[in-house]
Records
---
Amino acid sequence: DSGVTQTPKHLITATGQRVTLRCSPRSGDLSVYWYQQSLDQGLQFLIQYYNGEERAKGNILERFSAQQFPDLHSELNLSSLELGDSALYFCASSVFSGRSSYNEQFFGPGTRLTVL
Amino acid sequence: DAKTTQPNSMESNEEEPVHLPCNHSTISGTDYIHWYRQLPSQGPEYVIHGLTSNVNNRMASLAIAEDRKSSTLILHRATLRDAAVYYCILRDVENDMRFGAGTRLTVKP
């Protein structure tokens, strides 16, 4: 158990819909990262927040957005869903912002999103 | 971003050592070499990282070539639980992690 929790575990929805994925980082971790893992694209970095502020952006679509709240939990919002958005979405957390040689990321169990 | 190259898959026998190679010929002086692994149906987990010197921890050893253009993750005695996809990642202190395809390790009893 990494200490990172993600809800829900599974989500099934229809094209065009909007969903929210939630992540609670490990106690004391200030950074939260979101990743998408699909069969054809592998594990892709989406976005990082550090202490409430956006820190880095990866391959995140404009239809996707995220935020980190004062209690440090984070939400990933996916809208206008398409079949290709079906994937595993992982959240990870770490102590540092990224400016450290040792910045181990602890991953949650993931949310499996199925878009029908 | 500097890129890594790993074999798609490898096989090992249980209780034998495993050497997982990674090539990173375009590594820069500030890039650290990180290894993560992803067990079936789980999120990735940290294994080890290093800069220039070889590193050991309770999970594995990391051997880094003198020119830093390649590295090898060593599992000293593979167990069935070590069957996973192993990712070799380069990152400097500013970079976020960019995963490649990794090496799928199969451990045979």
---
Amino acid sequence: EVQLVESGGGLVQPGGSLRLSCAASGFTFSDYWMHWVRRGPGKGLMWVSHITSDGTSRDCADSVKGRFTISRDNAKNTLYLQMNSLRVEDTALYYCARDDPGIGIDIWGHGTMVIVSS
Amino acid sequence: DIVLTQSPLSLSVTLGQPASFSCRSSQSLVGSDGKTYLNWFQQRPGQSPRRLIHKVSERDSGVPDRFSGSGSGTDFTLKISRVEAEDVGVYYCMQGSHWPPWTFGQGTKVEIK
């Protein structure tokens, strides 16, 4: 069964840092691009960041550029999101998602909650 | 960046009746390969998003045939032929034709009357 399991969320003060992880199973992780997408309270889905299958290319939304860094360890079948200089507006449920080649995002994890508050 | 505008933002539907949602793009979603990467996702309360439709009109595996997608260029539609109770949730369109960024519409919230 294809599965994505996020972890690492929690409560952090503004300006703080967190590292999210996403453990993948049931498919050949190293063959797929991956994304992080978030949903803020009372808001819709927002794409956060993307990384290619070999990790050599990555992109992120302007709102997190310079603060968030996506990475992956294909040997451990794990995707990461390092989040620094967190702001209140980063509060959201963070999902990792797989990119189906030639089609787009298909499989989503259940999400990990990040709350930025003093 | 491409902006996707969904309408309506909320919809109250009687069980067994049809429902239709619109997604309009700020520019054509025809990609450099001639394909249109417009997908629809359903997010039920308390659940992760689930893809229903990819590339405008191709239904994903396991998705009931009461769901259908159509459109081209900048205008796209998701239709439910007969709404069932399990269809309650938020529906998002998403484009992957011109990235980064990948962008989502604001979502259409569906409830049962």
